[in-house]
Amino acid sequence: MIRQEDVYRIGRIGRPHGVKGEMVLWYDDDVFDRVDADYLVLSIDGILVPFFIEEYRFRSGDTALMKFCDVDSQEQAAALTGCEVFFPTALAADGEAAPTLAMVVGFTLVSAADGAVVGRIARVDDATANVLFELEDGRLVPAAPELVDCIDVERREVRVRLPEGLLDL
After folding, report:
1. Element (H or E) spanning 108, and its range?
2. Degrees (nearest 5) of the Cα angle 92, 93, 94?
3. CA distance 33 to 37
4. pTM value > 0.90
5. d(C-alpha 94, C-alpha 144), whole Å
6. Beta strand pairing status for 157-160 and 108-111?
7. Coil, helix or strand for 4?
8. What is the pLDDT of residues 56-101, one digit of tens each?
9. How far apart are CA 81 and CA 93, in angstroms?
10. Helix, strand and coil percent figures for the chain, each rounded to 5
11. How far apart are CA 143 and CA 41, in angstroms?
């Protein structure tokens, strides 16, 4: 059984494309292309289900046309529309690709200076040039590369060097 803590969200399934089971994948992280993976995980009615990749091709900077094995009709593809798509954390960590910001949702944010827990990352806001970690308590913390000391996938931690007084704002 695939557990939620073993995967991280990379996108969602859009509408079918054509009549042979191909569908649009809206992705935030193209790790499936950078790491040799045979499958992606879809959330279907709250259950995480692996789908083996038959083929895919990129359509734009945030969409790909995805074909899964045994999804061979427009109707089967339509049934998956809206499903959230996840990637196995272990495959991403074992691959050559560096950890991505999409991967750290659910990780603990820790101060590199004193080891204090700052909070748990609820989401990453990358809508602007200034990327932010949104913590579960609603606080926003800058995610600039020069502030991120390290991402420890095994411990599910992100160590950051925050300017003094930032968390008091």
Report:
1. strand 108-111
2. 95
3. 8
4. no
5. 24
6. parallel
7. helix
8. 999 988 999 999 999 999 999 999 999 999 999 888 766 555 667 7
9. 28
10. 15, 45, 40
11. 27
> In the beta sheet, which residues pair with residue 56?
66
Alpha-carbon span 154 to 136, nearest angstrom: 21
Lookup: tokens for 24: 């649009």
DSSP structural state of residue 95: S
Q: Token digits for 68?
A: 């899964």
Query: Which residues is 85 bridged to in the sheet?
Result: 11, 42
Note the pLDDT of residue 53.
Answer: 96
Among the residues of the chain, which ranges form H helices? 31-34, 74-78, 89-94
Question: Which of 80, 79, 86, 67 lies closest to 28, judged by CA?
Answer: 86
CA-to-CA distance for 108 and 104, rounded, in angstroms? 8
Q: Which two tokens stand for residue 140?
A: 């926003």
The C-alpha angle 99, 104, 108, rounded to 5 degrees, equals 125
- Per residue in 2-26, pLDDT tens? 988 888 899 999 999 999 999 999 9
